[in-house]
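User: Continuing from earlier, I have the next pair ready.

Assistant: Great, send them over.

User: Here they are, in order.

Assistant: Folding the first of the pair now:
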Amino acid sequence: MPDANAFVPDPRVTIEGAPHGPLRGLTFAAKDLFDVAGHPTGGGNHDWARTHPVPTRHAWAVQALLERRLRERLVDVSNSEQVKRFAVLPRPFTLAADEITVSLKLRRTVVLDHYADRLVELYRD
């Protein structure tokens, strides 16, 4: 994505997505005025970023952008197969965290334990 001189000279944050799925290959940019889970937010102010906690959730605008792109990609999917709710996690599942097996199968109980708070939020309504 071209910079268009819109970014401060901080390291670029790239969040790797899954290699498969409806959002595969999509990119977008968000100025650091918007929280991106797992990355410091500072609006170009290095002191703010150093003295405030790293966000654990995406800002509403980032989440809305992700939701819109997901809906666009799933336009041809039947209603019963549509993604109803989702959460973007701050990192991929890893062997080191014991969330996947060596054959890359998901260890559901471990994932449920690690992200219980996120799952409760998804199904709170």
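And the other member of the pair:
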Amino acid sequence: MLDISAERCLDVSPRDSVELRSKRMTRVATFYDWPSSAKSVVRPLQLAAAGFWYTGEVDRVQCAFCRGCLRNWKPGAIPAEEHRRHFPDCPFVCSVEPAADAAALSRPSARSKGKCACVLLI
């Protein structure tokens, strides 16, 4: 198992949190200064697809839905899988249908509605 640090964050995005929750490209835009050392470990598109935005601190990302933070990314980590492992009750995680192929969790076609007991409040 990969040793990625997880924590509940109280940070509030400098951006409109509703926009971060509703628009993946808004989350992608927060990665404009994602460190080059981190780009070789995990791609911003994967992170944004998993519900994360970049906090601007080293390789720390925060979920726009549950405020969970992950950092210290390791090679081979799959953002959607790590999100599910560390924050299983996150409304975003609950809105994504589990798939045999963990990489499929980052694809828009993997989303399903009404298949989770979690409620997403925007």
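Worth noting for the second one:
Helices lie at 17-22, 24-29, 36-39, 44-49, 79-86, 91-94. Residues 5-110 form a domain with the Inhibitor Of Apoptosis Protein (2mihbC-IAP-1); Chain A fold (CATH 1.10.1170.10).
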